[in-house]
Write a structure and sequence with these properties.
441 residues; six-stranded mixed β-sheet; 36% helix
């Protein structure tokens, strides 16, 4: 019998690599790792006894692990530059080196799992989480990796009884093209990541290729009328997740479809879905945080928030928007005009900058506000005490407060909601400081 592999993951605390570490450890591998800072999955890794180093990634921790423990495989996040000290050290030590897709394909083959890959511009995280939630409620053994934290499960898990593996297949860095799924689930395809796909045509061609190398593809149909979750986007994702669950759940011998009674029970379970970290997540009563940064995601989240506010009898929705990546905003500037319809107030803060094109002008909040159809409700703002007080005042008056951000504004609003950082233990577990290497989708 071969010895379990020993894996070193650089960028281990992020939502792209942390769940992979949990999956690999669950499958019997020994896992080590490092990151510049703690991330969303750090506490889960520590709780599982995974040895990791946070701070200066100078290659010394990797060198020590190779010397003292032995390392078979160095896996690194797409966020690592070519001259990163750990990557250079791995090459110097002549380790096997790859990104996450090669390790994941190795696991799929070794564990003989059928891949259910959830891809798409928007909706993939929520749809993946809904599949995991339903499998748990029904007792279906399932292995999975999801690019966020979950209030009801770990971010990555291997079940030795599972036949299926559900994966949130990210199109960034063309990661999803490394896989040949048994089932591909695609909620939406529009256009994103101009730093990887310079044109919409290239972006769509990537999805066409992904579909061609998948055994079966589902895009979803009409929204199931039995779903009562707030927001059309969430009901659409839930319809897709229900389709997947019906394909993999055990059925009585000789029957190809589930009964009407089973269908009603499935809908009831789905309507109780508790949500996902940073996807319209209620961080405190009346305060919500969402990862939305693309105009289509923003429009969907605004719709969810307005519907939720109406259900709760609140006066309206006040939103803070922190865009992500200037190169994306330059490409999509004109698409923002209609997406904030229905808000009472909008505060637009400076863009969270990562992986930028230095040739492009950094757009200012005032430039975005000038493009809006309802610009009278919007104003440029900063993440400071003045904005914090305004949000507290809106909340006291009976408004739902919504933050949309893929960046540091999420940590900012949690400090506002929990003065002195006095969150519950569960909140601290899910929302450790953002890792510098965490994938941003």
């Amino acid at each position: 019998m071969s010895k379990p592999l020993k894996i070193y993951i650089s960028g281990i605390s992020g939502t792209g690599m942390g769940p992979l570490a949990l999956m690999a450890q669950g499958a019997g591998m020994t896992v080590f790792g490092s990151d510049l800072a703690g991330g969303a999955v750090t506490n889960e890794l520590v709780n599982h006894g995974i040895q990791l180093c946070l701070g200066n990634q100078d290659g010394e921790f990797l060198k020590a692990r190779v010397k003292n423990d032995g390392v078979d495989w160095f896996v690194y996040t797409s966020a690592l530059p070519a001259d990163h000290p750990e990557l250079l050290m791995a090459k110097k030590l002549k380790l096997k080196i790859s990104k996450r897709d090669e390790l994941l394909n190795y696991l799929l083959k070794k564990l003989k799992l059928k891949l259910i890959a959830v891809a798409g511009t928007h909706g993939k995280t929520t749809t993946t989480a809904m599949i995991v939630w339903m499998a748990q409620q029904l007792g279906i053994p399932l292995s999975y990796i999801i690019g966020t934290t979950l209030p009801f499960a770990e971010a990555g898990h291997y079940d030795p009884k599972s036949q299926y593996f559900v994966y949130e297949a990210d199109e960034y860095d063309r990661n999803f093209l490394a896989f040949h799924p048994w089932l591909a689930v695609i909620p939406t395809v529009s256009y994103d990541h101009p730093d990887i796909y310079p044109t919409m045509e290239e972006y769509r061609q990537a999805f066409t290729q992904f579909e061609a190398q998948s055994e079966t593809v589902i895009h979803g149909d009409e929204i199931d009328s039995g779903l009562t979750l707030a927001g059309e986007a969430r009901r659409y994702d839930a319809t897709l997740a229900l389709d997947v669950i019906q394909r993999i759940m055990p059925k009585p011998k000789g029957l190809m479809k589930i009964s009407a009674l089973q269908r009603r029970k499935l809908l009831q379970m789905m309507n109780e879905f508790p949500g996902v970290g940073r996807r319209f997540e209620q961080v405190s009563e009346g305060y919500y945080s969402d990862y939305a940064h693309h105009p289509e995601e923003v429009a969907a989240t605004v719709e969810i928030a307005i519907e939720e506010a109406e259900r709760r009898g609140l006066k309206g929705v006040v939103a803070v928007y922190e865009p992500h990546q200037n190169s994306r905003q330059v490409e999509l500037l004109e698409e923002y005009a209609p997406v904030f319809q229905g808000l009472t107030k909008l505060y637009w803060v400076p863009t969270f900058l990562t992986r930028e094109n230095p040739k492009l002008e950094i757009l200012k909040p005032t430039q975005f506000v000038a493009k809006l159809e309802n610009k009278k409700i919007a104003e440029a703002a900063e993440l400071n005490d003045e904005l914090a007080q305004k949000l507290l005042d809106w909340h006291k008056k009976g408004y739902l407060v919504l933050l949309m951000s893929a960046g540091p504004a999420d940590a900012w609003i949690r400090k506002l909601v929990f003065p002195g950082n006095q969150e519950s233990a569960a909140t601290r577990l899910v929302h450790a400081p953002r890792s510098a290497s965490e994938e941003v989708r």
